[in-house]
Design goal:
Helix content is 41%, strand content 28%. It is an alpha/beta fold and 278 residues long. It folds into two domains: 45-128 and 232-274, 3-Layer(aba) Sandwich (D-Maltodextrin-Binding Protein, domain 2), CATH 3.40.190.10; 129-230, D-Maltodextrin-Binding Protein, domain 2, CATH 3.40.190.10. The strands form two sheets. Strands 5-1-6-11-7-10-8-9 form an eight-stranded mixed beta sheet, sandwiched between helices. Strands 2-3-4 form a three-stranded antiparallel beta sheet. Strand 2 and strand 3 form a beta hairpin. The radius of gyration is 24 Å and the shape is globular. Residues 9-31 have low confidence and may be disordered.
Length: 278
C-alpha cells in the first residue's frame, strides 16, 4: 500500500513537472515566433545587405564578417528564432537591393536623411557625430566644414558625408567663397589612403569609424573637428513591409532591455551615450 502510494505520488510529481516544462517551452516558443516576420526573402533567415568596409560597424577580417552591426544582426535574428544570411555589396547598391526585394533589411550603419527616408523606412539605433580628419603633420586648422573652402576633401560614395559637403558648398557659393573639392571614393578606407598619400587635404567620417582608425594608426592622422552631433543611423526596411519594421524594432528594444545591446557597444568601444534608446 505504501509502495503504491509512493508510486502514485512520484508519478503525479513527474506529470506536474512535465506540464510546467512544456508550458514554459510553449510560452518561450510563442514569444519567439511572435517576432518572426511574415515575409522573408529566404525562409528561416534574416537576409541583410551590408557594405563591409566601415569599421567598427562592418568590415572583413580575412573571409569573416566582423563588427558591431554584424553581431547585432545575429542577436536580432536570435530574438526572431532565425539565422542570418549576409549579402555583401557596394554601399550604393544597398537601397536598390532592398527595394528590389533581394534582401530583408539594410544593416550597414546607414545614416538617416531626407532623401533616403523617401525610399525606405528606418529603425534608428545609434546617434553619432562626424569628424574632419587630416594628416597628423598638417599645420592648417579646420575647425568647421566652412574652413575647408577650396580644399580637396575625400568622402565615401553614397555616404552622408557627401551630402554634408554639398550642403556646405551651397553656403560657400552664396558667400562668394571657393567650394570644397569633393573626392568621392568607393570605400571609407580609400578616403583614409587618399589623405595619407596627399590626394586629399582631409576626409570626413563617422566619429566611431575615426576612433577605430586612430587606434590602428595614431601617428598618421589627427582629428581637426567634429560636427553633425544629431545624426542617427538605423536599419533600413522596405516601406511596404511594415511588419518587418515592427518586428525589428521590438527585437532591438528587447536587446536593450536585456543589456545585450550595451554589451555589444562596449565590445566595439562605442560609448553608451550613442545608444538611441538610452
Amino acid at each position: 500500500m505504501v509502495k503504491s502510494f509512493r508510486s502514485i505520488f512520484c508519478l503525479t510529481i513527474a506529470v506536474a513537472l512535465s506540464i510546467v516544462f512544456l508550458v514554459g517551452c510553449s510560452s518561450k516558443s510563442t514569444s519567439t515566433s511572435a517576432l518572426v516576420p511574415k515575409k522573408l526573402v529566404n525562409s528561416g533567415y534574416l537576409t541583410y545587405g551590408t557594405a563591409a568596409t566601415f569599421p567598427p560597424f562592418e568590415y572583413m577580417d580575412g573571409k569573416n564578417y566582423k563588427g558591431f552591426d554584424i553581431d547585432m544582426a545575429k542577436e536580432i535574428a536570435k530574438e526572431m528564432n532565425l539565422k542570418v544570411k549576409t549579402q555583401s555589396m557596394d554601399f550604393n547598391g544597398l537601397i536598390p537591393a532592398l527595394t528590389g526585394n533581394r534582401i530583408d533589411i539594410i544593416n550597414s550603419a546607414m545614416y538617416e536623411n531626407a532623401t533616403r527616408k523617401k525610399q525606405v523606412d528606418f529603425i534608428p539605433y545609434l546617434k553619432i557625430s562626424n569628424d574632419i580628419v587630416t594628416k597628423k603633420t598638417t599645420k592648417e586648422k579646420f575647425k568647421s566644414l566652412a574652413a575647408l573652402s577650396g580644399k580637396t576633401v575625400a568622402v565615401t560614395q553614397g555616404a552622408i558625408e557627401a551630402v554634408y559637403v554639398n550642403q556646405e558648398n551651397i553656403k560657400l557659393k552664396k558667400a562668394g567663397k571657393a567650394v570644397i573639392k569633393e573626392l568621392s571614393l568607393p570605400k571609407a578606407s580609400d578616403t583614409y589612403v587618399a589623405v595619407k598619400n596627399g590626394r586629399a587635404d582631409a576626409f570626413l567620417d563617422s566619429s566611431p569609424g575615426v576612433a577605430y582608425l586612430m587606434k590602428k594608426e595614431p601617428n598618421t592622422y589627427k582629428i581637426q573637428a567634429s560636427f553633425g552631433e544629431k545624426t542617427t543611423i538605423g536599419i533600413a526596411v522596405n516601406k511596404n513591409n511594415k511588419d518587418m519594421k515592427v518586428k525589428i524594432t521590438k527585437a532591438i528594444k528587447k536587446l536593450n532591455k536585456s543589456g545585450k545591446f550595451n554589451k555589444l557597444m562596449a565590445k566595439y568601444d562605442l560609448p553608451k551615450e550613442l545608444n538611441y534608446y538610452k
